[in-house]
Amino acid sequence: MKKKYLSSVLAASLCLGLAACSNNENKNVEGAAENVKLTMMLTVGEQGVRDVIQEIVANYQTEHPGTQIEVQFPGSNYESIMKMKMASNELPDIFDTHGWAKLRYGDYTMDLKNEPWAAKMSDTIKPTLTDKSGKVYALPLNEAKDGLFYNVKVLEKYGVTPPATLDELLASAEKIKTESKGEVIPMFFSGLDPWTIGQFFDMMANPLLITPPQNEAQALLDGTFDWNKWTYLPEKFKEIYDKGYTNNDLLTAKYADEARLFAEDKLAFAFHTPSSYADIQKINPDVKMGIAPLPAIVAGDEPTFAGGERLALGVWKDTNYPEQTKDFLNYMAQPDNVKKVSDATLSPAALKDVSGGGAFSEYYDQYKDTKVLPYFDRIYLPNGMWDVMITNAQELLAGNITAKKYSENMKSEVERLKAQQK
Questions:
Q1: Which fold has domain 37-142+310-369?
Q2: 87 by DSSP, 3-state: which?
Q3: How many angstroms separate the CA atoms of 124 and 367, rounded?
Q4: Most CB atoms closer than 10 Å: which of 18, 54, 176, 224?
């Protein structure tokens, strides 16, 4: 009887133990499923934009307590970090494709074509983030429309309107320089932040070589382009410098100087987006700034913007949490969140059901039908040519090379880099 009783007790204990183990295992599985940690790495540098992103992430985590999202902002190290992560095939769950969704990150991204926001992409951003098969490479929160950033008060004071052609821009520069007796600078570039110089060449290459009816697009793609046709750009850039249409301290100026000059109504134009607007407003809250398309170069052509991706979120195709990452992207794609990012970045929203751009929304609405072309270097130049354009421009202004030599250097470097990247 004791044996039978003892056996019963042992059996009951064993069952309870197994049940407890089973319950613990179930809890662990549930806990693993619920407690998800995603990583998201972004190129965003402006603190105000970072704050908006963190706010959206915090709201999502409040609504989804089982999901944590670690947001990383590595700044200028972003590209080098991503190259290492691609080499080891260990990418963040979500990452900023920063203009390279297809060309650089295409093999690493999940196809997002079935997500509800995919059909809402703007007509101007859709070609940049999709391919012929219909794959959608990333969620665009905003889109780039780079053009002429200008001080409205300065243009009004000197009776100048946003130019439709490069000749008009140079005529306006002469008018502003002469009538202000040199107190107002027509255009600004920074040698210490030389991307401002690169912008001129990369942005104006489109109206010179791509947008005219008789263009060089195919020749650039198939390697038959006559690089003597590039010489026009360094010639014009040197003319702008020699005629005093830009800041005299160009080679030593800092990008931060631009904000001060705009705020003091001592600068008319810059070749980029409203990226310095927040810094300008800190100095002069009453300043009025505008954005206009890039002037045409060839007779009969129309002004255009340069652009494409700005802040676009790709999903690593091998993420351990595909459903959670897509769910977060769908949350980011909600109109209120897209508008927050669009307004914070002063860039137009990339989804059709959202109007954004903050203080510049009126200009984006005004130019909503103006053609937006991809950045020239993203389509027609091999990786590595951005630095070549900048270095040669600096050498040109320093008097070390001619405009013709600039073009010869472009040709040889394009050939060298293409051969390396085969």
A1: D-Maltodextrin-Binding Protein; domain 2 (3.40.190)
A2: helix
A3: 12
A4: 176
Per-residue pLDDT tens over the stretch 161-210: 999 999 999 999 999 999 999 999 999 999 999 999 999 999 999 999 99
What's the pLDDT tens digit per position in 82-108? 999 999 999 999 999 998 899 899 999
Q: Tens digits of per-residue pLDDT, 227-280? A: 999 999 999 999 999 999 999 999 999 999 999 999 999 999 999 999 889 889
**φ, ψ at 314 (rounded to 5°):** -100, 155
Q: Integer distance in angstroms from the first to the last C-alpha of the chain?
A: 85
**Pairing, β 372-374 against β 305-309:** parallel
Alpha-carbon distances, residue 80 vs 57, 93, 225, 321 (angstroms)? 25, 17, 31, 25
What's the CA angle centered on 217, arms 211 and 223, to 5 degrees?
155
- Does this chain's domain 37-142+310-369 share its CATH topology with 145-307+381-420? yes
Hey, where are the domains in the chain? 37-142+310-369, 145-307+381-420
Under 8 Å CB-to-CB from 407, ≥6 apart: which residues? 227, 228, 230, 231, 234
CATH topology of domain 145-307+381-420: D-Maltodextrin-Binding Protein; domain 2 (3.40.190)
Q: Is the pLDDT at 31 greater than 60, yes or no?
A: no
* The residue type at 266: K
**Strand ranges (DSSP E) for 152-194?**
185-187
